[in-house]
UniProtKB/TrEMBL annotation:
The name this protein goes by in its record: chorismate mutase
Alphabetized InterPro entries for the sequence: Chorismate_mutase_AroH, RutC-like_sf
E.C. code: 5.4.99.5
GO biological process: amino acid biosynthetic process; aromatic amino acid family biosynthetic process; chorismate metabolic process
GO MF annotations, alphabetized: chorismate mutase activity
Pfam families assigned: CM_1
Catalytic reaction equation(s): chorismate = prephenate
Organism expressing this protein natively: Oceanispirochaeta crateris
Keywords: Amino-acid biosynthesis, Aromatic amino acid biosynthesis, Isomerase
Record's keyword annotation contains Transmembrane: no
Length: 123
């Protein structure tokens, strides 16, 4: 069965190095907590705020050798009622044979996005 899990992380700065570190951390935490292998992945979608000017899919592909997983990036919609700077979100779809509930990961200031499910105990 195909499942999906969400996550997000805030960047301290808009730099390629910071993006690569944050993408790698978010990806590895999601993989570890959900007990996934790269072969389980169906696809990954990233969304990022306008103030991130580097490509998270490229960063993840290079740092984790994900050449067989479709990766896609998009820019977050600008909303007047909520602005959180340098925010990167992820939606990971994967194949799973078990009934376990996906465990989302929200790191740094991204915890403010989902205070109802964010917890330091997840990571």
């Amino acid at each position: 069965m195909v499942k999906a899990v969400r996550g997000a992380i805030s960047l301290d700065s808009n730099s390629e190095r910071e993006l690569t570190l944050c993408v790698d951390k978010l990806y590895k935490d999601l993989m570890r907590l959900n007990r996934l292998k790269a072969t389980d992945l169906v696809s990954i979608i990233f969304s990022q705020t306008q103030d991130i000017t580097f490509n998270p899919a490229k960063a993840l592909r290079l740092s984790n050798n994900l050449n067989d997983t479709p990766l896609f990036c998009t820019q977050e919609a600008v909303c007047e009622d909520f602005t959180q700077p340098r925010m990167l979100r992820i939606l990971m779809t994967y194949n799973s044979e078990n009934d376990t509930k996906p465990i989302p990961v929200y790191l740094g200031d991204a915890r403010l996005l989902r205070t109802d499910i964010s917890s330091d105990s997840n990571v």
